[in-house]
Specification:
Structural class: mainly beta
Radius of gyration: 13 Å
Mean pLDDT: 97
Order of helices and strands: EEEEEEEEEEE
Number of strands: 11
Shape: globular
Distance between the termini: 40 Å
Oligomer: single chain
């Protein structure tokens, strides 16, 4: 049974920072590339960032590049999303996801967490 559990969301002022964590109960965690996606009310699920199995390759959405950083710790079965210079338009539910492929497309991901709410507001 694969389970992904996100944490670290909350309310933050514009310009602030948050660090999201995703704990993965996957026996062979290092066999999966990991991604972060977000979904705001009324919007489709949107790609944010992905990291390869070993962590050597990363990709970002244009909207977050230079502000967000994805990382992983294969020894702890964890993936992180450091979010800096947050903007109101970053407000969404953030989900982590696991895939055996290398993709920014939600359809490529096999497992999903329930998500954690991030609200950027003054």
């Amino acid at each position: 049974q694969v389970q992904l559990v996100e944490s670290g969301g909350g309310l933050v002022q514009p310009g602030g920072s948050l660090r999201l964590s995703c704990a993965a109960s996957i026996r062979t965690f290092s066999n999966y590339a990991m991604g972060w996606f977000r979904q705001a009310p009324g919007n489709e699920r949107e790609f944010v960032a992905a990291i390869s199995r070993s962590g050597t390759d990363v990709i970002y959405a244009v909207s977050v590049k230079g502000r967000f950083a994805i990382s992983r710790d294969n020894a702890k079965n964890m993936v992180y999303l450091q979010m800096n210079s947050l903007k109101p338009e970053d407000t969404a539910v953030y989900h982590c996801a696991a895939t055996t492929h290398w993709s920014s497309q939600p359809v490529a991901y096999d497992y999903w967490g329930q998500g954690t709410q991030v609200t950027v507001s003054s």
